[in-house]
Amino acid sequence: MTHYVDHGGTGPVVVLLHSFLMDGGMFAPQVAAFGDEFRLIAIDERGHGKTPVDGPFTYWDVAHDVVDVLDELGIDRFAVVGTSQGGFVGLRLALLAPERVTALAVLGSSAAPEDPQVAEAYRGLGALWTTQGPTDQLLDMVATICVGTMDASAWRVKLRALPYDLVTLLLEALVSRDGVVDRLGEISCPTLVLHGTADAAYPVERAEEIVAAVPKAEPLVLVEGGAHFLSLTDADAVNPSLREFLTAYA
Asked: What is the pTM of this model?
């Protein structure tokens, strides 16, 4: 059963999709900033937060999970905001249910498959996690890639509590994902792409690729010095653009 938090409200529905090894709580800055203007629904993606996983899966599976939640709630039309992994799912949602997604915002993400060399490096990290556990060195690496200089002490506590085999399973879904670059032209909804110039996971070119290919893409929003988990690490910089975009199109 997919876990979610419906923050309520009578405004347009906006689905919030979190990053790798996070959960729906990472969008607390957005809930605080404009939760009174929209009905924000934060979903714990498969294997994250309070949503279980029972075997290998793809981000297409997660997109179907999101559709099931919206069906359960009786919601036909909705906007999507996805950060990093959430962006992978958001792009697939816009392809899976184009008649239902009113607008899409993608932060610190990519439409391409993982670079093979990076994928192997991440698999090596997963192997170390399985054999040695979440050592300080491993957690430092993960935190640096994902949140840059932001204080990650609370997140590190959560990471230490994760079952080792779960991390390996989630990591494999990440690094083995298919690319959707050649399908971006099918995305019919208005799309906003935001990317940090200090993103340690994906270069700005990945964001430019999406903007160039999606027919109704807004101009790329670059956040100077922004880290990978942009909606969390640089909320003050991204929230005005998100609010303006969602107000116009959600």
From this structure: 0.97
SS3 206: helix
Neighbours of 234 (CB within 10 A): 23
Which residue segments constitute the domains of the chain, with CATH numbers given? Answer: 4-112+179-249 (3.40.50.1820)
The pLDDT confidence band at residue 10, using thresholds 50, 70 and 90, is: confident
Q: Which residue(s) pair with 104 in the sheet?
A: 80, 191
pLDDT, one tens digit per residue, over 94-108 is 999 999 999 999 999
In sequence order, what DSSP letters do the residues of 30-72 get, joined into one string? Answer: HHHHHTTTSEEEEE--TTSTT----S---HHHHHHHHHHHHHH
136, 231, 239 from 107: Cα distances, Å: 28, 7, 11
Between CA 35 and CA 189 the distance in angstroms is: 22
Distance CA 126, CA 169 (A): 9
